[in-house]
Amino acid sequence: MAEIVLDGVTKRFPDGTTAVRDLDLTIADREFIILVGPSGCGKSTTLNMIAGLEDISDGDLLIDGERVNDRAPRERDIAMVFQSYALYPHMTVRENIGFPLRLARVDRAEAASKIEEVAHILGIEQFLDRRPAHLSGGQRQRVAMGRAIVRSPKAFLMDEPLSNLDAKLRVQMRTMISRLQNQLGTTTVYVTHDQTEAMTLGDRIVLMLRGVVQQVGTPEELYDH
Ligand code: ADP
Ligand code: ADP
């Protein structure tokens, strides 16, 4: 559970590019926020700053009221899934999903039940003993999501997670992501340049253009007129 506040957040890269300019946004606990906009508008940079993968040049990032600008990614309790992802090829699906639990020394029984719960939500419980090479692309992406959220992070960040999948699979995955959000209730920030995805998944949509927020609203507010 987490409220995420971006307060005047700006990102300037060393070459002078201002990727994000004076971004103000309050993401409520359990909200599913979509960042949408053309390529290069600053979506990924925004996610990376929330995750701690990029420094913030100006402004403040608050998670549950605490300023976390200088906190390392590991200390932010945030999970991230990208369009390409690396599963451990020598591990089964169960071991892949359970890996973060093993690192955190979560006890065996608790880990086993958590893995089952996540696999069930993702519809991959029948593949738990397979290795990634024996899974389809959509199944692998679900395993990557399972591994990312298995420790119930405060927030779940996704950067175009469906863009490598075909149209049919994307629709299935959209349904699955909605279910994941409803059952786990994590605060989610989801990046896409696909308007359909934005409309079907988001509680609210943030439309960005050249590093600046143009509009923020529910799908109805943004697209129904
Ligand atoms: P999006 O995710 O919306 O496609 P990005 O956040 O990746 O946009 O990029 C926003 C802007 O910042 C773009 O103009 C991009 O070229 C620039 N940019 C991204 N990363 C760097 C970097 N490491 N150095 C300089 N400019 C960058
Ligand atoms: P999806 O419908 O998720 O896209 P595919 O059409 O790629 O899945 O695969 C259909 C079925 O075949 C799935 O149940 C998948 O687990 C299985 N499968 C795909 N590739 C392999 C493989 N290399 N070895 C074993 N089973 C596989």
Written description of the protein model:
The protein has seven helices and ten strands. The chain is of the alpha/beta class. The strands form two sheets. A six-stranded mixed sheet has the order 6-7-8-3-9-10, sandwiched between helices. Strands 2-1-4-5 form a four-stranded antiparallel sheet, with helices on one face. Strand 7, helix 5 and strand 8 form a beta-alpha-beta unit. The longest helix has 18 residues. The radius of gyration is 17 Å and the shape is globular. The model has no long low-confidence stretch (mean pLDDT 92). It binds adenosine-5'-diphosphate (ADP) (2 copies). One adenosine-5'-diphosphate binds next to helix 1.
Please describe the topology of this protein.
Layout: E1 4-12, E2 18-27, E3 32-36, H1 43-51, E4 58-63, E5 66-67, E6 78-81, H2 93-103, H3 108-122, H4 137-149, E7 155-159, H5 167-184, E8 187-192, H6 195-201, E9 204-209, E10 212-217, H7 219-223
Parallel strand pairs: 3-8, 3-9, 6-7, 7-8
Antiparallel strand pairs: 1-2, 1-4, 4-5, 9-10
Helix pairs in contact: 2-3, 2-4, 3-4
